[in-house]
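Could you help me review a protein record that somebody else here produced? This is what I was given.
***
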Amino acid sequence: MKEAVSGWVLGPLAHALQALRGAKLTAAVTLVAEIGDLLRFDSPKQLMAWLGLVLAEHSSGKRIKRGEITRTGNAAAPDDAE
């Protein structure tokens, strides 16, 4: 896989993601292959929503209640680092 990534247009991004704790080659390549160009997202918030890594919120009036991560984003994106 290392050889294939070295010639891939998004290879530098996959390489950079490996700097994150726990993100090894397979997880980084899977994430980049699924997301593609990160510039298509206007903000990190938009990317996190696409991945489903946002908190659930049940609010009414002045009452704000936030729950767990929704996990409703792209199912093909890796949910754990290898």
